[in-house]
Every structure is written in structure tokens, then in C-alpha cells.
Amino acid sequence: MSNSVAKQLEEHPLVPMVGEVSKIVDETPDVKTFHIYYEQGKPFTPMPGQVAMLSLLSVGEAMFSVRGVDENHLEFSLKKTGILTDALHEIEEGQKVGVRGPYGNGFPIDFCKGKDMLFIGMGIGLAPVRTMIYHCINNREDYGKMQIIYGARSPQDLVFKEDLFENWHKVPNCGVDVTVDRGDDDWDGNVGFVPPFVEGLAPNPENTVAIICGPPIGIKFTLPVLEKLGFTNDQIITTLEMRMKCGIGKCGRCNIGSCYVCLDGPVFSLEQLKVMPDEY
Amino acid sequence: MKIIKRDKLKDLLNSFAKNAQTLAPVKENDTIKFLPWKGQGEIDLSQNALLPPKDLLFPQTEVMYRYTDGGVQGEITDVAAAAERQVIFGIRPCDVRSLTMMDDVFMTKGYEDDYYKSKRENTILISLGCNEPQPTCFCTSMGIDMMEADGADIVMYDLGEKLALEPKTDAGEQLLNDVDVLEDGAAEKPVAKECQLKADAEGLAEKLAQMFHHSYWEDLSRTCIGCGTCTYLCPTCHCFDIRRKNIGEEGFQFRCWDSCMFSEYTRMAGGHNPRPSKKERVRNRFLHKLQYFPERYGKVACVGCGRCVGKCPVNIDITRIIGELREVSVDE
Ligand SMILES: Cc1cc2nc3c(=O)[nH]c(=O)nc-3n(C[C@H](O)[C@H](O)[C@H](O)COP(=O)(O)OP(=O)(O)OC[C@H]3O[C@@H](n4cnc5c(N)ncnc54)[C@H](O)[C@@H]3O)c2cc1C
Ligand code: SF4
Ligand code: SF4
Ligand code: FES
């Protein structure tokens, strides 16, 4: 990371660093992955689970999971849902975009060290989970067994297919299980919702941390399954989304009780969530 | 201590204004506002300004940076410059206290907001003690001394025909030394009349932590019309939105005050809204002031200025609400 870049973000935490989109990957009909290139070195190295504000200067900015790829690249995966994400889905390689961050706490790496890791992703929710999966892959000796469970609505809606069907199968002591709500003629994998799929796979809770992200409804129905399997609240980690504007605990927008999701989150254990007001 | 005759006040402000933007409470169209002093106008020290001076540090709209965006190429051309020196004359003790809360928000917990900080560090505060509270004032309940103002550079007392100024910081001392319209003197500090309105928020946060699902909030929200007046007038409310304005291939990003009383405030992409009705929004406003802020920053986010009490169109009075919250039983 170049010093001047880091200094700018420190001195003006609300002003983005402009970089260039160097690669766009079509994941699904409504999800694209963007690689953003910084000639002088990427502006920051995010911890797994952290987020950043991505902007098109004349359109707006919004918060997304961010992954550091190499010295010069940051990576975001975006689902098309509104004004900014629609516009970003229209751009081509070479487009200038702004990024500011990294924000939030990230996944509790020290807590996870030495444990088996269960990853459950649903839909675009695999994006934050994947930042931790990559962290574990890159520090493989620090973690035990890895088990990755992913579900999407249909085969077309599967994101990060290269990871799911190639890369992660090569990782030592790592299982990958994929399901879709509805199959099609070409799909010979599992069909069914994530909660019963998890129940059938019956991951062992002993010395295991479960990281689960996805739409609220998916999380809601998967939690009782994990509980039934014997996972306790402190073993279950998830991320929350709230509307955000500043990302640095000033604009007041993302509070749940006295906690700001942009600063104190977006990662929370179920144990923490149980004592917070259920206003999210 | 320095003394100035009331009829020489304009000379004093003129001297300040030579070296720094000077803001003073001026009566315009029947309302008292903090306006830049340009040598003219009717200085009104009879009661506090309707709008708190918070917008001098955290403007209602504020340009953050400018950019050019010609399709593919975009760049940031200019980040808002550091603030000029300013003197706020006649800020009341409650509003001085409110700035300590703004400081907590904008300058602590890991990030310093450079826009706020640069204004704050270049601002000199001259407080004016309140001899007589308004009927809506309850600052003394919030632990404020109506004559003193911790954090002011100069504390000023209203002695009728005269005003007395007592510097409290080096910056304040310097400012007074630089002007020649003041006389040395001594004066008795006036004795303030008591606030009639009272509220006891001491220890309420612990109780409120158990009242999130209480039916009280539903009942309270029935009368609120969600106009947001209370949050706009409140010197401790700090929420903002970030937006942009494009003019051809140029544009600027700005922030502007926002209010948790509006439904749009928390509505997320996809339409989900964690605070879908007035019940959740009214609850958030009061819990933010009385529970969340104390939990996060160790102080109640109300200074008893009474602006919301006086201006809420449906008379939602925070002192009454504090009283009722004390009374209701936690388990309904
Ligand atoms: C911590 C965190 C992490 C996240 N990570 C990711 C991620 O990795 N990937 C990802 O894809 N998303 C992620 N999100 C979600 C993402 O931030 C939102 O999808 C994004 O804000 C959408 O922005 P937008 O401008 O496209 O949508 P917006 O335009 O803000 O909102 C879209 C919705 O609101 C409606 N709408 C917009 N404006 C108006 C209006 N003026 N009036 C009426 N209706 C309107 C639209 O019809 C649409 O339904 C994350 C969010 C958070 C908080
Ligand atoms: S809540 Fe009302 S009385 Fe308290 S500081 Fe805000 S405007 Fe003043
Ligand atoms: S001023 Fe009164 S009516 Fe308006 S939003 Fe505030 S409490 Fe509700
Ligand atoms: S996004 Fe502004 S406080 Fe969290």
C-alpha cells in the first residue's frame, strides 16, 4: 500500500480513492464481480468480512463486501438491486470508480484459529463468506477441516462457480456441497433448500465455528438447524446489513440499539445478536 | 474580567469581525438566528436562537468534494478546504454542552471527521449565561449551570447595562487582548432564575434497556406526525445523508442533515425497512437520546434547550415523556 494513499484515506475518511475497473466477471444474470486496479498499490488491505463504499462518482455510493486480491486489486461482487448497482452493471472495463474503506470489524480471526470451519452461504451472501474462505485457504495450517455449503435459487444463480466447482475442491481437507432450490435439465447436483440440506449433511459442531450469510429468511430457517445439530450461539457467526451512508459511525443511520453496524459490525455472533434489540 | 457597555457591543463585534468570521444572534423576521456579523443588524440577547448554532460546525448542507465525470474517466478534483477561523458570540450554556456530544460523535471512536474537526478547531466560543430561562428550558435538570459553560473560550454574563467577559482559555484571552473596546473591571456573577420545567433522566437508560418492546412506544407514536422538526432543531442530533449534484460533466458530493423520523431513512435496497412505522422511529429518537447515546458515549443526548418542546406541532414534550417513562412499569 502506498503511503500517500493510506494517508489520504486517514485524513479524509469520507473521500474515495479513484481506481480503474480492470476486469468484470458475469457471475449470474444479476450478479457481477468487479476487479478494481490501483496503479500505485491498492488503497487498503481489507480483513476478511470487512466492507467498503464503492462509487460511481456521478451516481452514488453503497456498501459492499470487499476482498483484497493482490498488491494492486480490490474485488467486489454486486447484485443488481437499485440505482447504483444497476448503473455498475452497465459499465465496462476501463471505467473509473471510487472506493473508500475498509470499514467494520471483520470476522473474528483469532477466535476461529485452530478450529474447524463450517461456511454456509446463500445467494450473494457467499461474497462475505468467501473472504473468510480465502483467508483460511491462504493460512491453511491455522485452521482445521473446512466445510463449505452453498445454496442458490437455481443453477443460473450460482455465484463464484470456478471456486465452487474447481478451486475449492483442490484445497486439502475441504468439502464443498452445493444445492439449488429448483434444478434444470443440466443440473445433476442436489435440489432443495439450504436448511434441510445442512441438516442432512449434519456437520459436527465440536470445536467448529459456523459462518453463515445470506438473505434474512434463509438465515432465520438455518439457525434452528444449527442449534439442533448442537452449535451454541457463540459458535455461530453472521453478518448484518443496514442502510449505510458514512461507514464510520457518524451519520447515525445504521444503529441497532447503541451499536453501529458499520463500526461494531457487520460481523456478529449469534450470542451478540441475542442481546441486541431485534430491529434489523 | 473585561467589561463592555451594551451600547458598545457593535464595536466589539466589529473588532472580532476584522480577524475572523463572527457569528452573533441577530433578530431577523422575528426570529433570532446566528448570522455572520457585517456591522449591521439587531443583536438580540433576550433569549436563545431558534436554530441551534450546530450548523456553524456541521452545516445543514456541506460540499465534501468535487469531481469530474466524463463517462469512463472520473476523478476527484477538489476536497473541501480546511475551515477559516470563526468566533461564535453569545452561544448559550446548553448549546456549548451540545458541542461536547457532537465532538464525541465526529471526533472519537476510531475516525475523525475532517470536515467537522477543522471547523471545530478553528472556532472560538463566547458563551452567554442565561439570567432567565424560557418556559420550555430545563437545562438545569440536565446538569447544566445556566451561567457557566465548560468548553467555552470566554464566558460572558449579562449585567443589564453592561456585559462582563471572563476568558477561560488561552485562545479566549488572546482574542480579548486583541480588541481595544473593553475595559478592565470586576462584576458579580448574576444569579440565574430557576428553570420551571424539570426532567429527571438520571439512571433511566438501565430501565429503558428493558423497555424496547413496551406498548408505551406505540401509544406515544399515535400523535407524532413524523415532521422531523424535533430533530432539525435539536443541537445534539447529528444524522446526515450523503448525496450528489451533477452539473454537466462536473459535480459535487455533499452531505445534508437527515432525520430518523423519516421512513426513507432506514429503507434498504429491496424495500426492507427495519423501522417501518412511526412506532419504531419515535422509539429510536427517544432511545437514542436517553439510552443508546448514554451507553455509547456516557451522556444523555439532551441538553434541555427546550427547542423540541416549544416547536413540536403536536406537543410531544420530552420532559413529559421522561416523567412517564419513569412511571410506567417495565413489565406493562
Ligand atoms: C455491510 C453490507 C455489506 C453488503 N455487501 C454486499 C455485497 O457484497 N454485494 C451486494 O451485492 N450487496 C451488498 N450489500 C447490499 C448493498 O449495499 C445494496 O444492495 C446497495 O446499497 C444497493 O444500492 P443501489 O443504489 O443499487 O440501490 P438503491 O437504489 O439504493 O435501492 C434499491 C431499491 O430501492 C428502490 N429505490 C431506490 N431509490 C428509490 C427512490 N428514490 N424512491 C423509491 N424507491 C427507490 C429501488 O426500486 C430498489 O428496489 C451490502 C450491504 C451492507 C450494509
Ligand atoms: S431533545 Fe429537545 S430539549 Fe433536548 S437538546 Fe434536543 S431539542 Fe433540546
Ligand atoms: S416535532 Fe413532534 S410531530 Fe414532529 S416528528 Fe418530532 S415528535 Fe413527531
Ligand atoms: S453508516 Fe453512518 S453511522 Fe453507520
Automatic annotation (TrEMBL), chain A:
The keyword Ribonucleoprotein does not apply. Its cofactor is [2Fe-2S] cluster. It comes from Metallumcola ferriviriculae. SUPFAM superfamilies: Ferredoxin reductase-like, C-terminal NADP-linked domain, Riboflavin synthase domain-like. This is FAD/NAD(P)-binding protein. Residues 14-109 form the FAD-binding FR-type domain. Binds 1 [2Fe-2S] cluster per subunit. GO terms for biological process: pyrimidine nucleotide biosynthetic process. Keywords: 2Fe-2S, Iron, Iron-sulfur, Metal-binding. InterPro entries: Cyt_c3_hydrogenase_gsu, Dihydroorotate_DH_Fe-S-bd, FAD-bd_FR_type, Flavoprot_Pyr_Nucl_cyt_Rdtase, FNR_nucleotide-bd, OxRdtase_FAD/NAD-bd, PyrK_electron_transfer, Riboflavin_synthase-like_b-brl. [2Fe-2S] cluster binds at residues 246, 251, 254, 262. GO terms for molecular function: 2 iron, 2 sulfur cluster binding; flavin adenine dinucleotide binding; metal ion binding; oxidoreductase activity. The keyword Endoplasmic reticulum does not apply. It comes from the Bacteria.
UniProtKB/TrEMBL annotation, chain B:
The keyword Nucleotidyltransferase does not apply. It comes from the Bacteria. Residues 214-245, 293-324 form the 4Fe-4S ferredoxin-type domain. The keyword Metal-binding applies. Keywords: Iron, Iron-sulfur, Metal-binding. Signal peptide: none annotated. It holds the Pfam family Fer4_22. One of its GO terms (molecular function) is metal ion binding. This is 4Fe-4S dicluster domain-containing protein. It comes from Metallumcola ferriviriculae. The lineage of its organism: Bacteria, Bacillati, Bacillota, Clostridia, Neomoorellales.
